[in-house]
């Protein structure tokens, strides 16, 4: 459905200076930024209610040097954050693209708080793999549903038009200049809206099986945990208009989705000293490297299943997340006073699990590193009552996409700007490189918020210049 049609002779019902496709975090932030510049903005969202993958996420946005960090005594800077991003992705991302978002995201969160009343706070009681400072920021419920609801509220209060059940099924273009969009309504009727500038905020291709098979074959059969409407339209339109694309195999996986409950179990369960075992009660990897690469590793275990094992102290930290509370309410989190009793509930071999947990205790007591390379120095021992959740690996979202410049303008293969096309969030190439292991926690909402704001402001300025010409 992601077609490019000739604009020649097409009559648009009306024309808006800035059209945004997609009502997730990237689209809502872009709309707010464009509106503030005085541009007329229209957000087009295929669903009846804008939610996107943003609503499914934990809503945590990494940002360095914020006032919330300063209040909590956390030292951080955009340079330090950029170094963490580049280290996690082993030098693959473009340093300029990384610096751009690392610098923009902190001010963007403070702007959303000050101007639109989003009550962010910093998660200061556990660390995510690869982050050298505690810099994840979230709303009170620590859920993406709250993030998108509050962004939508801000957009509505600002008086920005959001058209729902408005599936953009084609772009109208003269060469690479986008003149407008075709919207298909649920009853099959079609409307045509002209645009001065177009912001693609319709995320990546995680929901498009053929594109996942092509670009992320190792997760082709994995559970897709993101929004099904993210069908790769931005990528397909961009490619057809001559845009450069990059790192299309890059993605965010997750190795700890409760199964069959289908609920994200926070990785704090691991970073705070928990481990994963397989159905034989044995460990199989260095889980501490990161949850993204752990998706494919878990899927290689018998039946594609693992158990995340931790204790009540860690569960208390995890309970700040709505998802975790839901998993507990659904009975997905098992509890027992001994490893043998836990194994009985898990229906796995009790001797094997007891031996595995004894090994972990020993490593923690001696500050040792295991045969997979996980360093247990400083980790607190697991103490009764123990907890376990049955999990599987899943694809959360894709990280590759359209190459953009410092104004979030889409570039062609020669590095030249397409005339009026912008991309933000999962529609744009992220900062995770080409592998799952390159994904640093929060890279998803990082580019949604940071590039969303950049794209909105730049598209509005360009549309104004065009009007004044
Ligand atoms: C379970 C889960 C947990 C996550 N946790 C985190 C986290 O804590 N921190 C983090 O940084 N990232 C996290 N992520 C990733 C994060 O959710 C995404 O990177 C981010 O939400 C992308 O925002 P977006 O606005 O680009 O896309 P989305 O929020 O997916 O919005 C895109 C919107 O575009 C609409 N759309 C698509 N095509 C069209 C079309 N043709 N016409 C009209 N509308 C269209 C869709 O319906 C959708 O509403 C998580 C992801 C998942 C799945």
From TrEMBL:
GO terms for molecular function: oxidoreductase activity. Keywords: FAD, Flavoprotein, Oxidoreductase, Plasmid. It comes from the Bacteria. Its cofactor is FAD. GO terms for biological process: steroid metabolic process. Residues 18-434 form the FAD-dependent oxidoreductase 2 FAD-binding domain. It holds the Pfam family FAD_binding_2. The keyword Oxidoreductase applies. InterPro entries: FAD-dep_OxRdtase_2_FAD-bd (IPR003953), FAD-oxidoreductase_2 (IPR050315), FAD/NAD-bd_sf (IPR036188), Succ_DH/fumarate_Rdtase_cat_sf (IPR027477). This is Fumarate reductase/succinate dehydrogenase flavoprotein. It comes from Azospirillum lipoferum (strain 4B).
